[in-house]
Amino acid sequence: MESISSSRSFAGIQGAYSHASTVTGTDMSFAVYVPDHEAGAKMPVLWFLSGLTCTHANVMEKGEYRRLASELGLVVVAPDTSPRGEGVPDDSSYDLGQGAGFYVDATEEPWADHFQMRSYIEEELPALIAEQFPVDMSRQGIFGHSMGGHGALTMALRNPDRFKSASAFAPIVAPSDCPWGKKALGRYLGENKAVWRDYDACALIEDGARFPEFLVDQGAADNFMEEQLKPHLLAEICEKASIPLTLNLRDGFDHSYYFISTFMDDHLRWHAARL
After folding, report:
1. What's the sign of the alpha-carbon dihedral 245, 251, 255, 257?
2. Contact call for residues 70 and 43 (beta carbons, < 8 A)
3. Residue-wise over 91-125: b if at least 16 C-beta within 10 A, else e?
4. Which of 3, 60, 129, 141 allows an S-S link to 165, with CB 3.0 to 4.6 Å?
């Protein structure tokens, strides 16, 4: 692991790092915020998964989480959204390829060799974080935005014993039923839609996956809400499955980091209470 940058911020250190991933076959970057702590202390860890076109740096620079994370004693980890670099497949559109990994383990060519973001975030990166940072891996939460909200919800539903809390900002709740998701899942996983269900929060719940509760914030002025995000589908399936869902529809807010940063504190406090 190599350090890219390290800066003091509030009562803690914001770092950016890179390492050689055996899972993706590339160098991968990620950000970690570590609050000040007693020697030998282990802190809960909160994973933030970012959306389309983003890197680890977007939430690091715009998320405004450090002040409260330092007060609450939360280590915040922000991975990249895909493998990158020379030899890594890409696409000319913003919603496929580099910056658009959709948190899946791709099985289709040309993506399968590198686009293994599910295994990277569920297995390889947590092992590195546990080895290199002062974290208590028995206390993990996960949240994310848009494509990253999709990643957070699906990873929580697949790993309810690992994560104690899960939330999302404007998540893609049913990628099998929206243009972004159909394009990405079809290209990464093939046209067998039964395979897609493991990467679809609503489908996972329909198929029996459960999680104690979810918090979701959605901007009411989000231009993607009706066609791509469809929060009502998550509300409907959670009600059927008796999964408590707090769904906040925020008047006047769009899909941007202005929205995310406004309600970041609410999410941090919500996770801290469960970790």
Report:
1. negative
2. no
3. beeebbbbbbbbbbbbeeeebeebbbbbebbbebb
4. 141
Pick the CATH number of 2-272 from 3.40.50.1820, 1.10.443.10, 3.40.50.790, 3.40.1550.10: 3.40.50.1820
Question: What does the pLDDT average to over 137-162?
Answer: 98
Pairing of strands 27-35, 75-79: antiparallel
Cβ atoms < 10 Å from Cβ of 24: 23
Q: Is 139 helix (H, G, I), strand (E, B) or coil?
A: strand
Which tens digits make up the pLDDT trace of 24-76?
999 999 999 999 999 999 999 999 999 999 999 999 999 999 999 999 999 99
Residue 71 region by backbone torsions, left for phi larger than 0, else alpha for psi between -120 and 50, else beta: alpha
User: Residue 258 is which amino acid?
Assistant: Y
Active site amino acids? 146, 222, 255
pLDDT digits 0-9 by tens, 195-213: 999 999 999 999 999 999 9
Domains of the chain, residue spans: 2-272
